[in-house]
Specification:
Elements lengths: L7 H8 L7 H7 L4 E5 L2 E4 L4 E4 L2 H4 L8 H13 L12 H13 L4 E7 L2 H18 L7 E5 L8 H6 L17 E4 L4 H4 L6 H19 L4 E6 L15 H11 L3 E5 L13 H4 L6 E4 L11 E6 H14 L12 H16 L2 H18 L6 E7 L2 E6 L15 H11 L2 E2 L1 E3 L3 E4 L7 H21 L5
Parallel strand pairs: 3-13, 5-6, 5-7, 7-8, 8-9
Antiparallel strand pairs: 1-2, 2-3, 4-10, 9-10, 11-12, 12-15, 14-15
Helix pairs in contact: 4-13, 5-13, 6-12, 9-10, 14-16, 15-16
The protein binds pyridoxal-5'-phosphate.
Pyridoxal-5'-phosphate (PLP) binds next to helix 6.
Length: 460
């Protein structure tokens, strides 16, 4: 970092507040200022190049130099930079994008509601579910079940869904007793000795069943889940898990909300994580790769049955009393539409299916590294979990900050990755990554792991 008084770094420290950052440490350390990008590579203000191994925040699917998206934004900005979707207004990009999303979505989906971020989409889903159950004359049916380690965002309602302690500590959450969390589907961490993957899935589905029964099915509205958990450590569900959980939810008239904010648009090899794990959602939320993150946009996708109920209720109330100034922003919608066209024309899904076996092979090989307890993933997403003792799975002390040490060494080797809770390191490159770049990613990560293994005290 340059320490010159007028440098970008000095001005960042002087004026900018950063989320998910130790603000006091930031005053000492300063920012990594990213100034450019080309393909899967980004560069900082000192000209150093990095392979962006987390696609920004799991979102830059098409990398950092897709000219078609720049053009799509420019065209729309010149033509009509802003209109909204309140009070019967609409715009061509919003109409085309909604139609396209419905065509791409699981069969039950018939309507799309646009907003700006993953958190907003999940907040909206919760509000609409409460609205829906009020409309159905079930005012008690409001409780929501999520999972520990889940990440669903950080606004007040989405923050209640998120099952990570850091999202709550110091923020006076929970503010509501409507949110419940069940066990994360990590067979590695939560499986019992001798328990098979299927048995583990059955136990977790029974836990959901028992919770719903103990709360009373007429008080439970929805179960919210990422098909593959992302920010909680890339937790890949065990065999049979979602089939078993869905059977429980059906029995109790509990909606399934699929949070596809990371999974959606080919991350797991299929269009949706729901396709990969045989999930039939009632509501689906998506964001991030929807626009390759060139502009902020998200969506709540819903079934016709759900829509019919809220449509009647909006007529009763005079309108659907919610929306966002920038929800369905025409420029963001035009960029999202172009992103979906690129996915189709460039056969992004086929590309992911072609290169992901190599990605998963290189990932799996890391399981042999002395620091790695588990290497897990699907499609082009994965994580390694770092442990002191591979046999007993004993973790390092949190204070040792082993995952941050590894991602720190990755930076030195020109690779950006992200430390995750549970001493994991997340890997989620742009979907356009080539096999040669996958090799560079894993070679650099291996070098970083070797560096850290070399300086850690040996296990007793
Ligand atoms: C699965 C999931 N849902 C929701 C969100 C929240 O999205 P945003 O940060 O756009 O509010 C995230 C963000 O990482 C996410 O990973």
């Amino acid at each position: 970092m340059s320490s010159a008084p007028n440098s970008l770094a000095a001005r960042d420290i002087a004026y900018t507040v950063h989320g998910y950052t130790n603000l006091r440490q930031h005053e000492e350390q300063g920012p990594l200022v990213i100034t450019g990008g080309e393909g899967v590579w980004v560069s900082d203000d000192e000209g150093k190049k990095y392979l962006e191994g987390l696609a920004g925040l799991w979102c830059s699917s098409l990398g950092f130099s897709e000219k078609r998206l720049v053009e799509a934004a420019r065209r729309q900005l010149e033509r009509m930079p802003y209109t909204h979707t309140f009070s019967h207004r609409s715009s061509e990009p919003v109409i085309e994008l909604s139609e396209k999303l419905v065509q791409m979505a699981p069969a039950s989906v018939t309507k799309a509601f646009l907003m700006n971020s993953g958190s907003e989409a999940n907040d909206t889903a919760i509000k609409l579910i409460w609205y829906y159950n009020n409309a159905r004359g079930k005012p008690e049916k409001k409780r929501i079940i999520a999972r520990r380690r889940a990440y669903h965002g950080i606004t007040l309602a989405a923050g209640h869904l998120t099952g990570l302690p850091y999202a709550r500590a110091g923020f006076d959450l929970p503010m509501s007793d409507r949110f419940f969390h069940v066990t994360a589907p990590s067979w590695y961490r939560e499986g019992l000795p001798g328990e098979s993957e299927e048995e583990f899935s059955t136990r977790l589905a029974n836990e959901v069943d028992t919770l719903i029964r103990s709360l009373g099915a007429d008080t439970v509205a929805a179960f919210v889940a990422e098909p593959v958990m992302g920010a909680g450590g890339v937790v890949v569900p065990p065999k049979g898990y979602f089939e078993k959980v869905q059977a429980v939810l059906k029995k109790h008239d509990v909606l399934f909300v699929a949070d596809e904010v990371i999974n959606g648009f080919y991350r797991t090899g299929n269009t949706w994580g729901c396709d990969t794990y045989n999930i039939q959602p009632d509501i689906l939320t998506c964001a991030k790769q929807l626009s390759a993150s060139y502009l902020p946009i998200s969506a709540v996708l819903m079934s016709q049955d759900f829509y019919e109920v809220i449509a009647d209720f909006s007529a009763k109330h005079g309108n659907l009393g919610m929306g966002y100034t920038y929800g369905g922003h025409p420029v963001a919608a035009a960029v999202a539409l172009e992103t979906l066209k690129i996915y189709e024309e460039d056969k992004t899904g086929e590309h992911v299916r072609a290169v992901s076996p190599h990605f998963q092979k290189r990932l799996a090989q890391l399981a042999d590294h002395p620091l790695v307890g588990e290497a897990r993933g699907v499609g082009l997403i994965g994580a390694i979990e770092l442990v002191r003792d591979k046999k007993t799975r004993e973790p390092f002390e949190v204070s040792a900050k082993v995952a941050p040490q590894v991602t720190g060494r990755c930076l030195a080797h020109g690779l950006i990755l992200r430390p995750l809770p549970g001493d994991a390191v997340g890997i989620c490159p742009p979907l356009i990554i080539t096999e040669a770049e996958i090799d560079q990613l894993f070679d650099r990560l291996t070098a970083a792991l070797d560096d850290v293994a070399g300086v850690l005290p040996k296990a007793a």
